[in-house]
Design brief:
23 helices; mainly alpha; globular; 5-stranded mixed beta sheet
Length: 589
């Protein structure tokens, strides 16, 4: 109850503590109270309860181990990640080595240590710990502990790139808990499930699961629980390019984030605010938000989060055309990542050297003692040879592990770059990727004089489709349109979603007449989408504004404005048509 419905647990404890004397039972009560306050993200009360319980650790060492593991989570919550990892590793080792640790304590220590490791991108060590903990659970394992470990494991699978396995496990957990889903842990499960369901069923379904998370936080949690739930909803709205709605949610919870005595709420708020401002082309606001987030995070022990924030700053700089600054920032991020890998490798090498030194010292002592006996001298030599072989094997394993780590980080970086340039709903390039490609194609058409045309496309009456038939049907229209473009367009064409129901098509090596013919063919295919949807009453049409590059165009923005004006003319004349942009009159000298 303390993890799921902490407020109810605290009310029950008020009655129990009146009759409880200082004993082993007192440590268990302190553990429950500490869990409840931690679930409510009340760090000061949680720490007070932990210190109370540790006073009785001699009478209840099992509860003391759980309290120390919870204290590691509290350190991480305060941004002291390095200290948290040290403590969780020590508690996990003590729980596995000691005879006084119960099965529940060993499993909780494993969940904490594995979860903290994977949260810092250490999947090599963290994932096996979580997996072994889940495999050791049986019918006597508390449901909250099983659910907590499953949530940590699903999150680790997603971040490690194995989201299909995370999706499979998430479906199993949802099915198993179908009869009773009430509490904060179920809220976190809903949030994890929401991000996975987006890839299978679309953003609308994902948002519904995020709203379920928010309901659980409002019903059972504190203001900070509700803040994180609102941020989860806002993140998904931003992914769906519904930036105005996301911004409105952020403004509602900003006072809670700024008043929090924990660092993460405000940093996460600033990170999302910077992203939304960038999407809305608000450069000054985006840079102010991301710089404040980085400044706040520099005071903490969260190197992994700092790298993500600085990478986001590089993307914001690039999106506003400040490419030199973006490349400089990205270079610093890569240097930091390389330094972290080198530091990790150096620590491993130092450990190997320490083991070799210790081994050499033991061998020398053995040789001194057995110097009088020839047989023992030979045996000591054999041991030395075996030890050296083991050292070489360890070094080989470490080198292989380092190479694998470099390969995995490369895969993760590649996947993050793909996600940053892709519209989640349609799978088409997003506005950032499209503008980068457009600038490249425009520059090429200037350098090697050749025709270059674009079309700005708007799906007619799309808002009416959403209002009358629901966002799920609207999402299907957008997906069908994207698939139709993939089938109909040429290999040299490039189409991206710039927001809502608006798309931009780039047509290199294409003059005005050919561009108009291609746009008319696409317009006719849009009308076929209605038949494919098989939803009575849905009518799909589109308006096109087509413009071709002229010698007087100094930038792609000028070309885009002319295409945009042509689109407005197409709508003014009744929609569902292709409208060419008028050719600018040559300047009179």
């Amino acid at each position: 109850m303390a993890w799921q419905r902490p407020n109810d647990a605290l009310k029950n404890l008020e009655q129990l503590e009146i009759t409880s004397e200082a004993s082993a039972h007192s440590a268990e009560l302190a553990w429950i109270r500490a869990c409840a306050y931690f679930a409510l993200l009340d760090s000061s009360q949680a720490e007070r309860a932990i210190q109370q319980g540790l006073r009785w650790q001699a009478m209840n060492p099992d509860a003391a181990l759980r309290l120390r593991a919870l204290q590691a989570l509290l350190l991480d919550l305060r941004g002291l990640t390095t200290d948290a990892l040290k403590q969780s590793a020590a508690v996990y080792a003590d729980s596995m080595a000691g005879t006084h640790a119960s099965a529940m304590t060993r499993q909780f220590a494993a969940a904490v240590d594995g979860g903290l490791r994977t949260a810092q991108n250490d999947f090599t060590n963290g994932l096996p710990i979580l997996q072994r903990s889940l495999e050791s659970m049986d019918a006597d394992t508390p449901e909250w502990l099983r659910l907590q470990t499953e949530i940590a494991y699903i999150d680790a699978l997603n971040w490690s790139g194995n989201w299909q396995e995370g999706w499979r496990l998430g479906q199993q957990v949802i099915a198993r808990t179908s009869e009773n889903r009430s509490g904060l842990l179920f809220g976190y499960l809903y949030s994890q499930f929401a991000w996975m369901v987006v890839y299978e069923k679309g953003v609308s379904v994902g948002l519904e699961w995020q709203r379920r998370y928010r309901q659980q936080a409002e019903q059972h949690g504190s203001e900070l629980n509700q803040l994180f739930a609102v941020l989860a909803v806002a993140f998904m709205l931003a992914d769906a390019d519904r930036n105005s709605e996301a911004k409105q949610l952020l403004e509602q919870v900003e006072p809670i984030a700024r008043a929090a005595d924990l660092p993460y709420p405000m940093i996460r708020w600033l990170q999302l605010a910077a992203r939304i401002a960038s999407n809305l082309d608000q450069e000054k606001e985006a840079m102010a938000f991301i710089n404040e987030a980085i400044a706040r995070n520099e005071k903490l022990q969260t190197n992994f989060l700092q790298l993500l924030l600085r990478d986001q700053r590089a993307q914001i700089l690039a999106s506003f055309g400040r490419l030199e600054q973006a490349m400089t920032e990205q270079g610093k991020v890569m240097e930091s990542r390389l330094a972290a890998l080198q530091k990790e490798n150096l620590a491993k090498q130092q450990r190997v050297n320490e083991l070799s030194t210790e081994l050499a010292a033991r061998e020398a002592e053995l040789l001194r003692r057995d110097n009088a006996l020839q047989a023992l001298q030979i045996e000591a030599g054999n041991r030395r040879n075996r030890a050296l072989l083991t050292g070489v094997s360890v070094a080989a394993v470490l080198i292989a592990a380092l190479l694998w780590l470099l390969w995995r980080n490369s895969r993760i970086s590649q996947r993050l770059r793909e996600l940053a340039d892709t519209d989640v709903l349609t799978g088409l390039p997003n506005r950032r990727a499209l503008m980068q490609r457009a600038e490249t194609e425009f520059a090429r058409s200037r350098r090697y004089p050749e025709p270059f045309s674009i079309a700005v496309i708007d799906l007619d009456f799309f808002k009416q489709i959403n209002d009358q038939f629901g966002h799920e049907v609207g999402d299907q229209v957008l997906k069908h349109f994207a698939q139709m473009c993939r089938q109909e367009l040429r290999a040299t064409d490039f189409v991206g979603r710039t927001g809502g129901e608006e798309f931009v098509l780039l047509m290199p090596h294409t003059d005005s007449d050919a561009a108009l013919r291609l746009a008319e063919r696409l317009r006719q295919q849009v009308e076929v989408i209605s038949e494919e949807l098989a939803v009575d009453g849905v009518l799909t049409q589109a308006s096109f504004g087509v413009a071709s590059a002229q010698n007087d165009d100094e930038s792609f923005k000028q070309l885009l404005i002319r295409a945009d004006n042509a689109l407005y003319q197409a709508k003014a004349e009744g929609r569902n048509r292709v409208m060419p942009a008028p050719t600018p009159m040559p300047a009179v000298s």
